[in-house]
Amino acid sequence: MGYDDYLAAEPVIVTAALTGGVHGKEANPNLPETPAEIGRAAAKVEAAGASVVHLHARRPNGERSFETARFQEIDDAVRRHTDDVIIQHSTGGTGAPDDVRHQPLRTDPPPEMASLDMGPLNRYDRLTSENTRALVDSLHAEMVDRGIKPELEAFNDGHLNEVRGLLDRRDLADPVYATLIFGPGTLAPPTPGNFLNAVRNLPEGALFNTLGFGRHQLPFAAMGVLFGGHVRVGLEDNVYYERGELAESNARLVERVVRVAAELGRPVASTAEARAILGLK
Amino acid sequence: MACPYLEYRSADGHASFDHERAYCTASSSLVQPMRADICNDRYDLDHERDCEIYRAHAEVE
């Protein structure tokens, strides 16, 4: 993927990361946490142009849940409220045992997509989400068994080596789909140079999604649009609409990036187009 | 065993919530949901080992 894809006005897939699992309503009271809230938010982002919703599960008080049953409640609510959105579950989980990390894959039906974290990520001062190769392989194996498309999350350039390593170890269905992530801490430093470098270091033929944390969400989405990639926005990654102003909703963030893509000349992919681009059945 | 600095509150002075949320009396602030797993020693987590806020306050006391 690259600038030629931008010039060709290829459709851009918009993913909305609705809730996350790190912060919650204490950071932005508009962040959806319950299955009903997430279902309603999914309907609004779908109407705004998102074709994929990236989902985490939470307990009623907002704390993290990895239980299949809680993901099932959320999926049921999303399906009740939406027409045809693509459901993508997170399998991330700092501090959670490996067997727990598999639980989001076991809903009925399974999600069409699931995240696959490509390596270690520091959290706070004393935690690391390890994401060992053994866990990556076991999660990928279960995704294959259940017909789930992996979304390979690369937190930094070293994780692009891990993407290549995964391709060496296992057969991945085409197209490979990787999210390039930029922000503080263990993430790739959010600079245009690092973005271009990450795009150059992708395996041949891989598609990329662009994720900038916090105030980097909009500029990195714009770069993703310009360089032929896809984009992810949402309250999981950024609770503000602009400096000092909390976002009213996930939909507001989606609406804005859809406007940016349109102004730059790339149409937003319909859900059917997104399925075709990603090779989903 | 949960962290001794952990309380569950339905409001923090700025906002109120339908369900009581984790509050850290050491930092005098609501707790991020992910950090609440450390406070509650869930999964493989242990507040005495993994929480820098607990460790700093335990040292002072």
UniProtKB/TrEMBL annotation, chain A:
InterPro entries: Aldolase_TIM (IPR013785), BKACE (IPR008567). It holds the Pfam family BKACE. Its cofactor is Zn(2+). One of its GO terms (molecular function) is 3-keto-5-aminohexanoate cleavage activity. Keywords: Metal-binding, Transferase, Zinc. This is 3-keto-5-aminohexanoate cleavage protein. It comes from Haloarcula salina.
From TrEMBL, chain B:
It comes from the Archaea. This is Uncharacterized protein. It comes from Haloarcula salina.
